[in-house]
Design a protein that fits this description.
Helix content: over 70%
Structural class: mainly alpha
Order of helices and strands: HHHHHHH
Number of domains: 1
CATH topology: N-utilizing Substance Protein B Homolog, Chain A
Shape: globular
Strand content: under 5%
Length: about 130
């Protein structure tokens, strides 16, 4: 099973939930129904676990993001970058088998793929600040 691909799917689903306002259950159900590849190629349990952790602990995660921002407000962060930050901080705090540095590195890779160049240093800075305060 591919954790990197599963993490990417989790970020996409988190982003989709932000836009659609669908519940976690609706999001997972729709994903499983619509996923065109073999579900054995991804870690569906990890995806469910991280989405549940982020959803249940969104206030704590958002507070950690806010504490890690410099001259920014949470509502100014693009939805893509916010989804990446929530996922990474959710992993750093709530997923024990993911080292913090791996969560940060994977978030940087997702930012490079889904956002712009300025966002890479922004996301890196926020996550570095969050890591130092954990």
């Amino acid at each position: 099973m591919n954790r990197k691909r599963s993490r990417e799917i989790a970020m996409e689903l988190l982003f989709g939930m932000t836009l659609s306002k669908n519940t976690l259950e609706e999001t997972i159900e729709t994903f499983v129904e619509d996923f065109e590849m073999n579900l054995n190629t991804i870690d569906l349990e990890y995806i469910k676990e991280i989405l549940l952790k982020v959803e249940k602990n969104k206030e704590v995660i958002d507070k950690k993001i806010e504490e890690s921002l410099t001259n920014w407000k949470l509502d100014r962060i693009s939805k893509v970058n916010l989804s990446i930050l929530r996922l990474a901080i959710g992993e750093m705090i709530y997923i024990e088998d993911v080292p913090e540095k791996v969560a940060i590195n994977e978030a940087i890779e997702l930012t490079k793929k889904y956002s712009d160049e300025k966002s890479v240093s922004f996301v890196n800075g926020v996550l570095d600040n969050a890591f130092k305060s954990l």
